[in-house]
Amino acid sequence: MPSLLHYEILADPSTLQASADGMPSVATLYLIASNSHQAPVQWESIDVDVRADSGASGLTDDRPQVVASIEPTYLRSFDERPEFDWDKTLQAYRAQSPAPAGRPMTLLGGEALILKLENVPVSRGAGLVQIRIEETSWGGDGSLAYRSAPYRSVLGVVKQIPKVPANFRAERSLLDVDAGQKVLLKWDGPSNLAYWIRHPDGTEEFITGPGTGPVTLDSYSWSTDAPKRGTTYTLIAGTRDGATAQHGYFLTTTVHALIPAFDHGTRSPWVEGTTDRGRVTFTPDGLRVDDTQHALGTVTAKAAVLREVSAHTGAIDTLTAKSVTAEAVTADTVTAKGVTADSAAIDTVTAKSVSADTVTTDALAAKTVTADSATIDRVAADAATIGTATIDTVIAKDVSSDTVTTGAVRGRAADAGRIEFPASGVNVYKNGSQEWGTLAADKADLNGINTKWVQGRSSSDGWIEFPPAGLRVLRDGGQEPGIIGAHQADLDILRTGEARVTGEARIKGLLTAGGGMKLYHEGERLLVTMPDRIVFTAVNEFRRWVTFDRGISVAFGSGTASITQEGGMIVRGGNLQVQQGTLSVSTGNPPNVRQL
Fold first, then answer.
1. CA distances from 577 to 219, 368, 552 (A)
2. Parallel, antiparallel, or unpaired: how do β-strands 182-190 and 194-198 relate?
3. Burial of 359 per CB tally in 10 Å (0-12, 13-18, 19+)
4. Is the dihedral of CA 96, 97, 98, 101 positive or negative?
């Protein structure tokens, strides 16, 4: 006879992967016991027998690691939560009532129990694992009576080994070719596939064909001479029909040479030493040699043939060159694309770029000026970066300076914004007028802010104003009260028209509701207080005494039953019955009891 409850099993992952060396597999099983009847089913126990061994039909060989739990889909307020755990006597997992065990539990129609086995270390070997279930239950739509013999069911889950290769890797990714080290590639894969190695030039080398017998997960390796430079190898897995190969799976791994050798050259923006960090940078004109501080370095050679010479010191009347690099330059006129010097005393400099620690000149026309110190009558440049400058006139696209002393700063246009520097700090104006302007910044670090109101960037954002009583939070850029979001609020007094709590509200003191109270649970109204009564719309369950000082009245249909001190017990419009008991009347003192 089939069991009263219907069982289904789900696994995560849906198909269990058998464990292998270095590749443990952990899974979760969900056993769903559902009541498909309209009527409730009473159940005493549900036993789940999971074979625990290391064979192909065993689920796990490490049962103590498994975590069992149960989750009913629905519990009434007076229902107890069942338990699901390992039973040493039965050698199975048992679901039952909490202590004392053996008491019947109720599963309503359409509801279910979810029995979970988590953190299951899956054993080795591919195969079908049987899950045997024994259920002691009664009831249902047929109102079946209790019977001692349990109902039995069998379910199953499948364990598989990987069907594709994995873990393709090199034993060493960095090889010393000069020391004779070799490439050793390893991978894991099923024994029913053939394997090839594809070299960087596209040629393929056959490694091994598919094995015979049951499919197993095996480890493979292949070795060859180390390459001269970084090389990528491709593992190909598939089938082989005679001389015809059918490729199905591809994996790649890369190895590198400790000292790479290139047959056709290489490209790099710069090259730097490892221990001595000198650097050679490739420029559009050739190359630049720097020392470890990235300043101009020294080239040492037995012989050099150069088209351009840079000297440490030069005293020159006129110098015309594409580039001038020197520790000191003293010249009447320098015309160059680039001038780099520690010190330069020049009457006229015309250059695309000037970089110097000190520049002393009457006129300087350059696209870029970079100097620690400059004494110049006139500077015309797109960009000027100067630590200290004494300049009569500056015409530049960009000026970068350590210190600027000025009364005001304004944009180029006549109606641009302006900044003034009074003794109290900084004033910002807009439109070339004395009207207060706007300061935009990512962050502002201030000791204090005095403002009438604060608003988001958009005119429709919320805003805060500061009346004498405190602050007001408004929304949508208007006068409608807004919302404050906070993790906690510490208030002495809370005045509100409505309070909504989405989580849990805990009140340590008294709760006083002056205007009445409504209590709901999941949208269903439980009670409403009125000036002269409390209206209950839910079932009232009292597990202790209930005392009514003035009496109690119950109305049902056209009848009533009341118990009061003035009128005693009165039943109107109905019958008074006493079932399986005695109705007695006592009078006098001592009382004279008569049974009716």
1. 84, 110, 19
2. unpaired
3. buried
4. negative
Mean pLDDT of 516-526: 78
Enumerate residues 6+ apart whose C-beta is below 8 A from 248: 193, 237, 238, 239
**pTM of the entire predicted model:** 0.43
Fold observed for domain 6-160:
Immunoglobulin-like (2.60.40)
pLDDT band at 373 (very low <50, low <70, confident <90, very high): confident
pLDDT digit string, tens, across residues 548-592? 777 787 776 667 877 887 777 888 877 777 776 677 777 777 777
Phi, psi of 9 (to 5 degrees): -130, 135
d(C-alpha 135, C-alpha 51), whole Å: 18
Helix (H, G, I), strand (E, B) or coil at 70: strand
Secondary structure tally for the chain: helices H, strands E: 0, 38
Residues of the chain with CATH 2.60.40: 6-160, 166-257
Count of beta carbons in the 10 Å neighbourhood of residue 93 = 23
Could you give the CA distance from residue 528 to residue 402 in angstroms, rounded to a whole number? 74
* 166-257 belongs to CATH 3.30.750: no
Higher pLDDT, 175 or 562: 175
Tokens of 291: 């020392």
Closest listed residue to residue 216, CA positions, set 245, 188, 250: 188
